Amino acid sequence: MPPKGTCNELTLKQKVELIKNSEGKSHHVLIQLYGCGRTQVDNILKRKAEYLSAYEENEDSDRKQHCSGSSYNDVDLLIWEWFQHACSLNMPVSGTMIQKKALEFAKQLNKPDFKVSNGWLGRLKGRHNIAFSAVSGEKGCVDGDVVEDWKLKLPDIIAGYQPKDIYNMDESGCVKCALPTKTLAVRGEDCTGGKKVKERITMSLYCNMAGDFEKTLIIGRSAKPHCFCNIDTMGTNLYQKNLQWSKTYIREAIEENIHFLQHTTPLWMDKL
After folding, report:
1. PANTHER family, alphabetically (predicted)?
2. Is residue 148 part of a domain?
């Protein structure tokens, strides 16, 4: 251990070793073990994903001892601006797309030595907190101008109504037989699954502006499926959707379930 009062700048290998040995150890213990300051320990642990990625990329090379800042900051800046613009357009972005775009920017900036390795991509993600997310929902299909116009009209529509009398209804699908789409696995091993289960039921959920939920409606293929023989004890109602008159029937059922229909009540319904 170095003499007291000295703080070493750890090599990349030592930083990775510190990260791997940090579990269950306090900062004080790590400082004593590696002879560095608290600030350096904090910085290493905060940037552990970046250091691990850099070490994995350069573990067979003795030339790179330290993990310094990027020498292609102008490329990184352009990529970050492009990424933010793509997200604002609700455009799905993959790692490969980022790498190809980075090569284009590097060529425009006359940087022929720029390499888009997986390590570079990992460090870029770490710097900007980029992670893969599932693309879901209908938000991206809605015109922003229509939304803003609706916001201006809505106050006049609901004026004079109590929050308990203003209802909204929407549908949600329940894929009741599906298995989880993610799992823990040993690093490096293939993780495969079968075909996705498509069997599902539709649930109609509605509540008022005050936050009071009404009885959930379950819409399925069969009128009396065996798996829902005790549905009356669940506080829900079951309806069959394959009947031609079912839409009108379900709408009437929804209106009957709302307790405040002794007077006019606004109800917004998604397409049923």
Report:
1. PROTEIN PDC2 (PTHR19303:SF73), TRANSPOSON (PTHR19303)
2. no
